[in-house]
Amino acid sequence: MKVTFLCQYFPPEMGAPAARTYEHARYWVENGHEVTVITGFPNHPTGVIHPAYRNQWFKRETVEGIELLRTRIYVTPNKGFAKRILNFLSFFASSLFFGVFKTERPDLVVGTSPQFFCAVAAWILSRIKRVPFVFEVRDIWPESAIELGVLKNRWLIRALEAIEMFLYRQADVIIPVAESTKPYLIEKGIPAEKIKIVPNGIDAKYLALPSATSAQARAELGLEDKFIISYIGTHGISHALSVALHAADKLRHEPHFHFLLIGEGADKDDLKQLAARLKLPNVTFMDAQPRERLLSFYRASDVSLVPLRRLPVFQKVLPSKLFELMGNGCPIICSVEGEAAALVKRAQAGVCIEPESVEALLAAIRQLHADAPLRQRLGENGKRFVTTYYLRSMLADNFLTALAEVKNRPLATAKQRPKAAEQQPTISN
Description:
The protein is an alpha/beta fold. The protein has 16 helices and 13 strands. The chain has a seven-stranded mixed β-sheet, sandwiched between helices. Strands 10-9-8-11-12-13 form a six-stranded parallel β-sheet, with helices on both faces. The protein is globular and about 65 Å long. The chain starts with a strand and ends in a 22-residue tail after the last helix.
C-alpha cells in the first residue's frame, strides 16, 4: 500500500503527534508498505528551526525507509492564538503545494488533527490525486479551543465548526485516538461503521533504547536523596501546572519532596515567574530533552503527574504520556477526568484525583510517598498493562487494517455523500 500522510510535526520534534506518526510509519514500512510523510521543518515548540534545516524551502529525505518531505512554514513559539493560526495556515499551504507537485499518486491520503487545517490540506490533496481521504482525530477541534477560552469570536467558531463537520462527512474513514470520541461523532450524525479507534500506545523499541540509569539521572540533577514528583511534557494552558507549583509551596518545609518539570510550552515563562515569586526551593525546570533521554527521567521519578484542566472536552482525551509513564513503570497521579482516569484505574497504575485541586494533589503525593510497596505495585501494573494491550506495533496493524478497508473504495461524489444531519445515527458496542 502507498500512503501519503500529512502531519505538521515529526521527529526530532517532541510530542505525541510526531512520535505516533513516526512509529506507525516505521512499522508500515517494515511490513512492506510505502509511506510518504509531508511535514514541516522541525521547530516545535520553541519556534526556532533546527540548524540542519535553516534557509531551505523544501527538503526530501529518508528516515528508516520513510520518505519525508519537509516544507518551509511560518514558525512561532507555541503561544499566541493568532500567530499559531498563521503557523497552521502556512503548513496548510506549503504541504498542499508540495504534496501536489512532489508526490506520486498514493493509494490514500491521511490527514491528522489538531490542527485540522492539516486535515483540510490532506482532503484537497486526496481529491486532486483521486484517492480516499482518512481523517485521524487526536483532539476535538475547535471544541477544545472554545472551552479553553482561546477561541471566542462566534463567526470564527461557526466557520471552524463547519470545516470540522465537512471533514467528518468527507472522510472515508475517521480514526480517533480516544474511545469517547466515538459517541461524540455519532451524536453529530457520523455513521458508527466509519469510525475506527486506534489509541496511542508505547513502542517496544523505544523502551529498549539505551539510557542513563535512574541513579545517574538523579546524580545529574543533584536529587539523589529526594522524592521526585515529575511532570514531563508540554507546559500549556491545558495543563494547569500552577497547581503543582502551589503544592510545592505547601511542601517547602518537607525538604525530601522535589518537583521536576521538563518541557516547553506557552505557559512555561509564567510558571517560572510564579516559582520565582513564591521563592520555591523545591522545583527544578528543565528544557525539553531528546525523547530517548527522557527514559532516564521517567525511571528516576518516584511519581509523575498527568494533569489537565477540569473541562468537559478533556473527559474525551487520552494523553499519550500515560502510555510512556506506564511503559517505564512509573506510578501516576492522574488529575484528568473521564477516559484517562478510567484507563489508569483499569490498569491499576496510579492514583486518580480531582483536577486542579492542590489539596487532592498533596494527599496523593503523601499517600504514595508513605507506601513504597504501593508505588512498586502501581509501576509494575502499568508496565504489564501497556505492554500487553497498547504496544505500538499492534496498534499500527489495526491502523493499517482500517486503511486497507478503504484503499480500493471508489470515490463518492458530493451528491453521494449524505449530510451528517440527514444520516441516522446508530450506536455500536
